[in-house]
Amino acid sequence: MNNFEALVSLNLIPQIGSVKLGQLLKYFGQPQEIFKTSGRSLAGIVGECLARDITGFNTKYLKDDLASAKKSGIKIITFLDQDYPQVLKEIPAFPIVLYCLGQITQADRLAVGIVGSRRASLYGLSNAENFAAQLSARGVTIVSGMARGVDTCAHRGALKVGGRTIAVMGSGFNHIYPAENADLAQKISASGAVVSEFSMETKPLPQNFPRRNRLISGLSQGVLVTEAARNSGALITADFALEQGRDVFALPGRIDSVSSMGTNALIKQGAKIITSCDDIFEELDLPAADMVKIKPAVAQEQEVVCGKESRLYEYIEQQPVAIDDLVQKSSLSSSQVLNLVLKLQLKKLIKVLPGKHFIRN
């Protein structure tokens, strides 16, 4: 067993993380030496129970895991490898190995995490996508957890402008969660990476997601929470960010909105209030004007509308607007407005909400 195989094997043993591994390496020097020693020597370092797990490790689990990863095109990176993200080595309890679909590059050192509720409102979802698109258009990698709700919108925002994004999973690659995001995972891997510290067959168990959250913040220079209730898992990511010395940003929400209580509480506790992506660049001390690499999605949209379409499009923003309000603001007739919104829908620039309200797509 070589060092690579030893590290993957140790990652397959429950209760062994980088802290326990550090204790073992301090004594044995090389990972492969850990599996060559007696149980008595191991017990003196990690205790009898864990020593038995190491000496009794079945190498079939290793072979199956490696074969499954190879079949799925997953690259396994250990913390000893050169392409292991340096920023992760700096956090407490860093992952021993990363399973990676896609590629993490030097460009990803400039990264911002975007997280929020799985049951976010339109406000939280649209802002997650918009902030991700604007930041990504300026060369920032977007990191999130590929969960339903805000996470999914954040990844899509980056993909919409051709930017880079990294998804951190709380399960193994043979159990992508949620299942409906399997196609999204493939798209993310084509312009970034999907990563997990969990072995291929690990299921999406509840206890895995707090562990996942520390990697979202660990890969980021700062974390933006767009919307979160008081008990939202996104707040765990914010806590990890603070522990790791990362910035925490929060969008203010309505004071009577249950889904914004968590973000409003973060602001009261000292999180940086954000109203535009320029606020994030300012807090991270980045030259916003010099970072533009990709044409923003809004500019692309405006190129395909003209005349009265363009005039009406200006009145449809990120907050829902009723048909009567559009008639009043545009000074067009009802029939003209209905005809124009239909054309904008067909161009996928706007979408219709219940009650004949419209919003930019």
Please outline what is shown here:
By secondary structure, the chain is an alpha/beta fold.
Shape descriptor reads elongated
CATH domain class of the largest domain: Alpha Beta
Structural class: alpha/beta
Task: Write down the secondary-structure element order.
Answer: HHHHHHEHEEHEHEHEHEHEHEHHHEHHEE
The main pleated sheet reads as: 9 strands, mixed
CATH architecture of the largest domain: 3-Layer(aba) Sandwich
Q: Strand-residue fraction?
A: 5-15%
> Which fold does the CATH topology of the largest domain refer to?
Rossmann fold
Number of domains: 3
Number of helices: 18
Helix content: 40-55%
From the N-terminal CA to the C-terminal CA, the straight-line distance is 53 Å
Sequence of strands across the biggest β-sheet: 1-2-6-5-4-3-7-8-9
Radius of gyration based on Cα positions? 23 Å
Q: Which segments are poorly predicted (pLDDT under 50) over 5 or more consecutive residues?
A: 289-304
- In round numbers, the mean pLDDT is 89
